[in-house]
Amino acid sequence: MSSAPRGLLDAADIVDGILETLMTSERGRWTLIDENLGLPFDSLFAMVRSGGKRIRPALCYAAFIGSGGDQSDVTAQRVMTALELLHTFALLHDDIMDGSSMRRGNLTVHEEFAAFHSKSNYRGESRRFGDGVGILAGDLAFVYADIMIEDAPIEVRKIYSELRLEVNIGQYLDLLGTARCEPTVDMARKINIYKSGKYTIERPMHVGAVLCGKGQTELDQLSDFGLPLGEAFQLQDDLLGVFGDDTLTGKPVGDDLREGKPTELIAQTINLLDGNERKKFTELFRHCQDSPDAIAEVMHAIEDSGAKGQIEERIDLLIGESLRALDNSFLNDIGKEMLREIALYIAQRQN
Asked: What is the pTM assigned to this prediction?
């Protein structure tokens, strides 16, 4: 796979610098109150530092630069950082809701604190303690995100609030679909739009453009680029969640199957199977949580049905649609090139 594009690297440099200053200052401030506060802050900051791709800040940055913005603009830099902190909040809570044990090759924060509780021989239930600290760590990231964006123009904060609502809507639909264990293409695509397309791609670009004073016509053009790219991003994520290399993804192979995620990949497999094969696949999918053998059989069925190939073809079609919209957009050449590189990187990523 190609190396990370310039837009991602530039955005990461900006955001990482601000985060390092924030984290050092805040840890020092709160450990003066009580030295026990060092541990949760260390875990939160380790999560922030642990190798996220900074896609959301990069898309905001590319749209900002593409709209004529100055890369040294402090407000834009803090808004980019807010998007990364908000993503950290979402991951921390998502890991608890999904019961995930690994994130980016490390124990998830709630599992880390459950183990700490058990090792320390504290009273009460280790799982509840770990979940509680994981939620609080996520809440801290959420508050720091708000601090980063508090000086942004009201128009930016309105889009940011809509982004936060949309990701919660998408998360509920994901939880509901997982509980029902009856994946459909229609539900999967709704989840893709609200949990990924808008939150990961469209809204960060809207924020960047509005920072430069752009209006609805320009935002609609960014949506024409961002929504198909967001769907492609989620479909690639779905493939990685089943077939990815765990040394690259940082999560166990088949983790999405184990969690019962109602992805388009699963829904398309069900649509492609007939009669007894469909019934057998559905039953296997329902039991992935309890059976490694079921996970292996489901993976084979997805490939044999042709669903994996269909999803790969759809990703290519969506990337093509996205790039055509980008070519016709208002953005300057620098912004277009940055977004083109990011789009192709998303289509080819392995983690």
From this structure: 0.93
